[in-house]
Each structure stands twice: as C-alpha cells, then as structure tokens.
Design brief:
The structure is a single chain. It is globular, with a radius of gyration of 19 Å. It is an alpha/beta fold and 264 residues long. Helix 1 packs parallel to helix 4, helix 4 packs parallel to helix 5 and helix 10 packs antiparallel against helix 11. The chain contains twelve helices and nine strands. The protein has a six-stranded mixed β-sheet with strand order 1-2-3-4-6-9, with helices on both faces. It has two domains: 198 residues, 2-enoyl-CoA Hydratase, Chain A, domain 1 (Alpha-Beta Complex), CATH 3.90.226.10; 50 residues, Lyase 2-enoyl-coa Hydratase, Chain  A, domain 2 (Orthogonal Bundle), CATH 1.10.12. Helix content is 45%, strand content 14%. The longest helix is centred in the C-terminal third of the chain and has 15 residues. The relative contact order is 0.12. Pathway: Lipid metabolism; fatty acid beta-oxidation. Keywords: Fatty acid metabolism, Isomerase, Lipid metabolism. It holds the Pfam family ECH_1. InterPro entries: ClpP/crotonase-like_dom_sf, Ech1-like, Enoyl-CoA_hyd/isom_CS, Enoyl-CoA_hydra/iso, Enoyl-CoA_hydra_C.
Length: 264
C-alpha cells in the first residue's frame, strides 16, 4: 500500500498519509513519498492543499524501527548532504509545503509528534481536533528536532515555548497549542473544517492567493522594511486590472461567485 496518496478535486489537492498501522510514522520511504507528493503539486492546477492522516493519528513521529538502521549507518552521510536546496530529505518533509505556491491546511488528530509535528508546521494553517496531542518528541530519543522545525517555529511562537517543548518532549493538548500559536483553530472534525476552508480559499482569485502566500513569505524572511514594502507594491501592480481581478469585481457587482478561466 502506498505511504501517501494524492487526489485532486475541484482545484483542491487532498494529500493523505496512508500508513495507519504505524500511526503514519515516518521512515525513509515515507519521507521520500511525502516530499514527492509536495513536489508533484508545484505545477498542478490547484488552489489549496489539505494534509491529513489515515487511522488513529495524523503522524506519531519517526518510525522507531528506523532508529537502529540510522545508528548503524554514518549519521553525517544521512543528514548532512543538502539534497533539496538548502535542506536535506527529512527537512524537506516540512519545507516542501512552504515551497508550494498555494495555501496548505493540515487537519490534525490523535498524535502529532516529532516528525508529524514538524510536518504540520510546514502547513500555512493547522486545524486540530480538541483531543489531539502535539509534541517536539526528539529529546525522548536523545535527539534534537531536525526536520525543519527550528526554521519554522520562531515565526509561530515564543522562544520559551520552543525551549520548554524541546527540552521536555512533553505532549501538549490542542487547546494549549492554540494558545501558544502552534494551532490555528480547533474543530471536532478537523478534516471537514479543513475542507470547508480550502473550498473558501479555492473560490478566491488564484493569482491573488498565490501572490499573497509569496508576499507573506517575504515578510517573514527577515527582509528589510524597504524590500517588503516594494514586494507589496510589485505584487499589487501585477494584480490590478488583470483578468482575475476584473472577474472578481464583476462577480461582486453581480452578486455571484467568480469564475476563473484556468481549469473552470
């Protein structure tokens, strides 16, 4: 059975982790499959992505059975090569979703630990079930988080929160995660809520949504104020008067949903 499946319907890509017997734990093959799924969508005619996991958990972390193989190998050869731009394979598991030009929504339930937690951080938005548990789990195994989390966490929460979660490896509830900025919102059925949100996003101007995601990334990159302001102006200049913006105006005036040419 494949470790990851991707289905596209109504301009929304549904990416599911499909290893429920292992609580979707990540081994090297699954890491490859997650990254391949992200890369396959970069040129797709989509407007949003939903990440979810089959079974009892979104993703319970790294596959423990893989640890022995890691220990027996050359660790440097495994994690040091930059195989995906400035990242290695395991870091790209999370970062590939930030690199997509469209919004990504993670629907979280059950255990969201370690590798699963960092995968979720790669999404633009995280919707969690009230009983979901999240953890930076690596310290439990005498390791540090090394799957892109440290590049993403400082944009979401405070330093003391990152340190507490990293040092203790203690799971936190979804409500606490939301209070700390790690979860966007709670929903009894996170996949249903993620789907509704993705449908709402898919109804907006595709070019404006893509420009907004790129602009937010620039703003979060630490770029100089002048560069961020110029990026705002450049993005806006590329949208004003364009066919999609004109269709939005026409649709608003007519009280109807906009219809965008590509893929409609």
């Amino acid at each position: 059975m494949p470790r990851v499946t991707t289905e596209i319907a109504d301009h929304i890509a549904h990416v599911r982790l499909t290893r429920p017997d292992k609580r979707n734990a990540v081994d090297p093959d699954m890491a490859e499959a997650i990254v391949a799924a992200g890369e396959s969508l970069r040129q797709a005619d989509i407007r949003a992505v939903i990440l979810s996991g089959d079974g009892a958990a979104f993703c319970a972390g790294l596959d423990v059975a893989s640890f022995a193989r890691f220990a027996a190998s050359d660790p440097g050869a495994l994690v040091m090569p930059r195989t995906h731009g400035d990242a290695n394979l395991f870091q790209e598991v999370a970062l590939t979703w930030r690199n997509l030009p469209v919004p990504v929504i993670a629907a979280l339930h059950g255990a969201v630990y370690g590798a699963g937690f960092q995968l979720a951080l790669g999404a633009d938005i995280r919707i969690a079930a009230p009983d979901a548990k999240l953890a930076i789990m690596e310290m439990k195994w005498g390791l540090v988080p090394d799957m892109g989390g440290m590049a993403l966490l400082p944009h979401l929460t405070r330093s003391d929160v990152i340190r507490r979660m990293t040092y203790t490896a203690e799971p936190i509830g979804a409500a606490q995660a939301a209070e700390w900025g790690l979860v966007t919102e709670l929903a009894d059925d996170p996949l249903e809520a993620a789907t509704a949100l993705a449908q709402q996003i898919a109804g907006r101007s595709p070019s404006a949504i893509r420009a907004a995601k790129a602009l937010i990334a620039t703003a979060e990159s630490g770029a100089a104020r002048a560069d961020v302001l110029m990026a705002e102006s450049r993005a806006q200049a590329g949208l004003i008067g364009g066919p999609e913006q004109m269709e939005v105006i026409a649709a608003n005036m007519a009280g109807r949903a906009p219809k965008f040419a590509k893929g409609d």
